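Try this one yourself first.
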C-alpha cells in the first residue's frame, strides 16, 4: 500500500498512491515537473553570494513594446507639432522637471526619482532589444526568438535567493519581455513564478503561468488531510533516517516544511490576497495594473527578491494619442502610487523601482498618427534602491532624437539594477560549458546615482 523508492525517497507515495511531491506542486513550476520543495531546495544553495543576506530588492516595471520618450519624461513643447505630440507638460515636485500631463501621480514623487533621458542603444528589433535589456547580453532576434541568456531576475534567484527564508525569489506579473524573464540555461528552478494575464509575445519563449489558485491544495485535500499525511510521512522518515547513515533526509525535512508553510499559511500565499489591504489604499492604486503593483509591494514585503510587472504593450504605430490616453493614466497610478507607498512604509531605500521598455519611439509622428521603433533615445525612470535621486541624467537634442550628453547604454542599465541588489557586473556564473562568465560584459552604474 505504500512504497518508498529512490535513494532520497523522492518517489515516495502515500497509501492512496499519491506522490507527496505532487501534492505540493504549484502552477508555474509544476508545468516543468518542478515542485515547490525542489524550488526551495535549489534556493538553499550554500554558495550564495554574500549579498544574499541583504534585504535589497527590485521591482521592474516593464513597458512592453517601448514607451515614447516625448510622451513621458522628455517632452519637447517647443518642437514642431509632428514631434511634440498631443500632450502638454505639467510641473512635478522636482523643480525644473516637467513631465506628461497624463502622469500626475508620478509628478508627486519625482523628487524621489531619477530620470535618465540619455539612454540609447542601436537595436530596433523587439526580441533582440528586450533580450538584451533583460539579460544584459545579445542573442535572440525576431527571426530566432528563443531565450539565450538568463534574465536579471533569474540571476538574482540563483545568486541571492529570497530576502526572507522559505519564500519565492523571483515573481513575474503579466509576462511581457517576450519570455525573457526566465532562466534559460541557468535552469527552470530560476524561472519566475508567473502570475497574471499573458501578454503579446513569442509562444516558444513565453513562461508558464500560475494564478491565485497556484498555492491551493490539489485533489480536494483539506489542511487536515495534509497534516495527517505529514504525520505519517514523519513517522516513515524517522524509520528511514535510522538506517540512513548519510542523513540524506535531514535537508528534505526542512525544505518540505517550508513548502508546507507556503501552501498552508505562508507569507507568499498571503501576499497574493490583496483584499487584506486598507480599502483606501486599494482605491489609490486602482484596479488592474494598480492592483498588481500593490501585489508587487506585498511580495517584496513577504521576502521576494525580484518582481517584474508588465504594464501593457506600448508599441503604438498608429493612433498613439488614443492609446496613451487609455494606458498612461493606469500606468501612472500603478507606478506613482507604488513609489509613494514604498516611501511611506520606509521600504523605498531597500527597493529599486525601475521603469523601462526595450527602446523608445520615433520623435516624428508617422502618417498613421503613431510612433515607430527608435532605440536611439529612451527615458528610464529609477526610484529608491539606495541611490541618490531628485535629478535628471543626460539630455537629448531639441526633438529627442539622440543623446547630447551622458549617453547611458544597456550594460549600464543592467549594472545599475544589479548594484541595487548588491551584485556587480563582474560577479560570475558558471555557463553550460563549465566556464565562469561575468553577469554582464561591461557596464557601469552612472556615478550621479552613487
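Now uncover the answer:
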Amino acid at each position: 500500500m505504500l512504497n518508498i523508492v529512490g535513494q532520497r525517497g523522492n518517489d515516495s507515495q502515500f497509501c492512496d498512491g499519491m506522490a507527496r511531491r505532487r501534492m505540493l506542486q504549484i502552477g508555474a513550476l509544476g508545468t516543468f515537473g518542478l515542485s515547490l520543495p525542489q524550488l526551495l531546495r535549489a534556493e538553499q544553495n550554500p554558495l550564495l553570494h554574500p549579498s544574499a543576506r541583504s534585504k535589497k530588492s527590485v521591482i521592474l516595471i516593464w513597458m512592453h513594446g517601448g514607451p515614447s520618450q516625448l510622451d513621458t519624461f522628455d517632452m519637447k513643447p517647443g518642437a514642431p507639432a509632428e514631434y511634440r505630440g498631443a500632450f502638454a507638460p505639467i510641473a512635478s515636485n522636482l523643480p525644473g522637471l516637467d513631465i506628461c500631463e497624463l502622469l500626475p501621480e508620478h509628478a508627486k514623487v519625482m523628487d524621489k526619482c531619477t530620470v535618465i533621458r540619455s539612454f540609447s542603444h542601436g537595436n530596433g528589433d523587439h526580441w533582440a532589444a528586450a533580450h538584451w535589456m533583460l539579460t544584459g547580453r545579445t542573442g535572440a532576434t525576431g527571426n530566432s526568438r528563443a531565450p539565450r541568456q538568463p534574465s536579471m531576475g533569474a540571476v538574482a534567484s540563483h545568486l541571492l535567493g529570497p530576502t526572507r527564508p522559505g519564500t519565492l525569489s523571483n515573481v513575474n506579473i503579466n509576462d511581457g519581455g517576450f519570455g525573457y524573464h526566465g532562466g534559460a540555461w541557468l535552469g527552470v528552478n530560476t524561472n519566475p513564478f508567473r502570475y497574471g494575464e499573458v501578454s503579446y509575445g513569442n509562444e516558444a519563449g513565453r513562461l508558464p503561468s500560475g494564478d491565485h489558485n497556484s498555492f491551493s491544495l490539489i485533489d480536494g485535500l483539506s489542511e487536515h488531510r495534509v497534516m495527517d499525511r505529514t504525520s505519517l510521512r514523519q513517522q516513515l522518515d524517522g524509520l528511514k533516517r535510522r538506517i540512513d547513515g548519510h542523513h540524506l533526509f535531514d535537508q528534505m525535512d526542512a525544505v518540505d516544511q517550508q513548502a508546507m508553510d507556503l501552501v498552508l499559511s505562508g507569507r507568499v500565499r498571503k501576499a497574493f490576497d490583496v483584499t487584506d489591504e486598507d480599502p483606501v489604499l486599494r482605491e489609490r492604486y486602482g484596479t488592474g495594473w494598480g492592483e498588481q503593483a500593490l501585489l508587487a509591494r506585498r511580495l517584496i514585503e513577504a521576502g521576494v527578491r525580484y518582481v517584474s510587472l508588465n504594464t501593457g504593450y506600448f508599441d503604438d504605430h498608429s493612433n498613439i494619442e488614443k492609446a496613451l490616453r487609455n494606458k498612461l493614466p493606469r500606468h501612472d497610478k500603478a507606478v506613482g502610487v507604488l513609489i509613494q507607498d514604498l516611501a511611506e512604509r520606509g521600504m523605498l531605500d531597500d527597493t529599486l523601482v525601475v521603469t523601462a521598455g526595450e527602446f523608445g519611439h520615433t520623435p516624428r509622428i508617422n502618417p498613421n498618427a503613431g510612433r515607430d521603433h527608435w532605440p536611439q533615445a529612451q527615458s528610464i525612470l529609477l526610484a529608491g534602491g539606495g541611490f541618490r535621486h531628485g535629478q535628471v541624467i543626460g539630455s537629448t537634442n531639441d526633438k529627442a532624437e539622440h543623446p547630447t550628453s551622458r549617453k547611458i547604454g544597456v550594460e549600464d542599465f543592467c549594472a545599475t539594477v544589479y548594484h541595487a541588489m548588491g551584485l556587480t557586473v563582474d560577479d560570475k556564473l558558471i555557463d553550460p560549458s563549465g566556464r565562469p562568465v561575468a553577469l554582464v560584459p561591461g557596464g557601469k552604474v552612472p556615478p550621479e546615482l552613487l
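Discussion: Residues 1-33, 199-206, 245-253 have pLDDT under 50 and may be disordered. The longest strand covers residues 57-64.
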